[in-house]
User: What shape does this take?
Amino acid sequence: MHMKTGVEQSMYALVLLNMLPDKAVLPGEAISQQLGASATYFQKLLRKLVTADIITSVPGIKGGFRLKKKPEDIRVYDVYLAVEGQQSLYSSHGILVDMLDLEKEESCCLLTNLMEEAESSWKAVLKRETIASLSEEMCGERFKDKVAALEEWINNKMVV
Amino acid sequence: MHMKTGVEQSMYALVLLNMLPDKAVLPGEAISQQLGASATYFQKLLRKLVTADIITSVPGIKGGFRLKKKPEDIRVYDVYLAVEGQQSLYSSHGILVDMLDLEKEESCCLLTNLMEEAESSWKAVLKRETIASLSEEMCGERFKDKVAALEEWINNKMVV
DNA sequence: ATAACGTGGATAATGATTATCCGTTTTAAG
DNA sequence: CTTAAAACGGATAATCATTATCCACGTTAT
Assistant: This one.
């Protein structure tokens, strides 16, 4: 049981896109290079973010990706959901139904309620932070120089 | 990101063992049959429960498994931990460290704190219920007959 | 027209989870 | 003291989800 690495990657991709000036765009290949991710595979993840209305894609030469929403409106939870899908962490295999020989309608599992509560509780925390708050955290005094270098890199790679 | 089915199986295995009279024991093969689980593989899971001090094993003919602790002292969380191990749901791949070109000591990730909090929150819910409370839930009026049949089965399969 | 980009589908490689096999040890019973 | 049934441990295979690659296609600035 482990979160996909795609969630972490996507999150940082969005932090990168958040550094872009208005109307500018960053090509997918540049993003995946910066993340150290497989370029072709990361395109698929970017696609998921597009269909989740988190980012916009611009095709054609001078194309790329940019945020579609304001960074303070993109919750960590939204990114998780876009990348991992909405399947729950736990789903019953109907063991109790078999053990007690219940009817199929009586889908009954001693764990489902508890697990759903646990998951809600987990998700609630993911809803607390946004791309805006993460970006802010990164741009604090501590990493001033490093972030400046990253901005420099963005200026080189961004389009229009 | 999905919980192993072994967790659900183990949980019900413990509910079964909780139905045993004192000092009696249930062979691993009977347990896995009742659960509809692969017998040989489920032995491995039972082993994890043994090393986690949740159940005791008795080798030799007339051997099998029984609870080691009182059912009210076995939390759902304990079972989860025994089966899945203590690795956390999220672990950083150091993407930010690479992006900002930080020193290795400066292991820094914008998500780690949040994710750890979320996980704690998730685990807290799993600590609320125990094998005792699950068993109780199962043995309510609703499934009276069905549970009686299960007890019958246990009487047949248990040893000593 | 062309070159650089995103899209979509098919398909492989990888890795974790689940499953099987076999030999060993333990113990009750004949 | 032999045998049968059980847990144990290691090696290994099968299965499945995740990650990765490839290629043909649509889009758009130059």
In short: Chain B has a mean pLDDT of 95.
